[in-house]
Amino acid sequence: MSEPFSVRITVRGYETDVQGHLNQSVYLNYAEHARWSLLQAAGISQAGLRSKGIGPVALETTIRYKRELLAGDEVDVSCVFEWGEGKTFRIEQTITKPDGTVAAEVSAVGGLLDLTARRLVATPQNYFKELATDPSLFGL
Length: 140
Fold this sequence. Notes:
Oligomer: single chain
Number of strands: 6
Shape: elongated
């Protein structure tokens, strides 16, 4: 298996809370940024998704905080899609400092919404395969 897709982010001062740590809601922004970066790297755009009448939806997200992050810290945010047999998929993400310290783990369940029917599509991986110029980034 190849290395997970990853993006590097520097924690900005305005993203921290009164204790000086990265605000809890920003972890979700970092995870979302990594997911959209993966889609873009695989050749999938928001316009491409809309042209097929679909859009990604988050159904469940869990964050496990491991170590604090402070302004100026750099982190790598990984992103791995895991496919099952149904309408949903899992996205596993790790937010890691360059020294290997895991700061947080984000686990999400997502799907692709048919924007007309307002229902999840039956086989989301087929849409990712069709739209992507590099479906291997999704493990497909």
